[in-house]
Specification:
single chain; alpha+beta; Alpha-Beta Plaits; Elongation Factor Tu (Ef-tu), domain 3; 5-stranded antiparallel β-sheet
């Protein structure tokens, strides 16, 4: 199954210092990028909060960064600020290359995200694509988080499960923005919030709060970060949520009539 990912942008990073520069900016170890594979990275601010989740891959020795279109200008601006005197070129390739999500389909020169999902790039518009909600459903089923503009700079990588099996964070690679906060949580703390998959029989929206009646948190117990409609009366979504309340009744926006359930914990 092939889906056009028109909501994603693509940034090309090249030059003599490209690898070292990106290594100093992102949470994962870019030295471990494998051929024809996507490496998940968090781009964090100094407090360890994720600005954007970025899919990084290499092609012909160049680095490419795939991310939600609505965060492109923020990421471009930040990269250009930090490159300073580095021998690095940063180009917006969003209008030059189309991106396609592949679900359980193998195509030559695609980039593997996991065993079921891949990313395909093309300089030409491809035909016979399925509707984009199929991609959202597949990503939610696989527990693949996304950070959009209204959720940017709210969560540390551990809240999105990027630390599990170091899928999106390396704890041995060295410094990057927010690294001290992320490492301190890993070695000295325990995340109070994790990513879970939920279901509801009514529509929910990115940014909706997840609440329980007896939570002592000053904020909501969690928030919705990715949503897909799976049928006429059912929605699945990913939410960052307090671990200690996974067995409690969970409501959307503190409305006791809008009960949701965890379908994967």
């Amino acid at each position: 199954m092939k889906i056009a990912l028109d909501n994603r942008s693509l940034i090309k990073v090249s030059g003599e210092d490209a690898g070292d520069f990106l290594q100093s900016q992102f949470s994962n170890d870019l030295k471990n990028i494998k051929k024809n594979q996507i490496q998940v990275n968090a781009y964090c601010q100094h407090q360890g909060k994720i600005i954007a989740i970025i899919w990084v891959f290499k092609y012909n020795e160049y680095y490419y960064l795939s991310l939600p279109k609505e965060l492109k200008e923020i990421v471009l601006s930040r990269l250009n600020i930090f490159k300073l005197m580095s021998k690095v070129e940063i180009e917006d390739f969003s209008e030059k290359v189309y991106q396609y999500g592949l679900i359980k389909e193998k195509i030559e020169k695609s980039f593997k995200i996991n065993s079921n999902l891949s990313l395909l790039t093309s300089t030409e518009r491809l035909t016979n694509c399925q509707e984009d909600f199929q991609w959202e459903i597949a990503c939610i089923n696989e527990g693949i988080a996304e950070i959009y503009l209204n959720m940017s700079e709210r969560f540390i990588p551990q809240a999105i499960n990027l630390d599990i099996n170091e899928i999106g964070v390396s704890f041995t690679k060295g410094c990057y923005p927010g690294q001290e906060v992320v490492a301190r949580m890993h070695y000295l703390g325990k995340p109070k919030r994790r990513l879970f998959r939920f279901a509801s029989n009514f529509e929910v929206f990115i940014g909706d709060s997840l609440d329980v009646s007896d939570s002592k948190s000053l904020k909501s117990s969690g928030q919705v970060i990715r949503v897909a409609k799976v049928s006429n009366n059912e929605f699945h979504f990913l939410g960052v949520f307090e671990v200690e309340h996974t067995r409690d009744l969970i409501f959307i926006n503190n409305d006791s009539n809008r009960l949701v359930r965890i379908i994967h914990a």
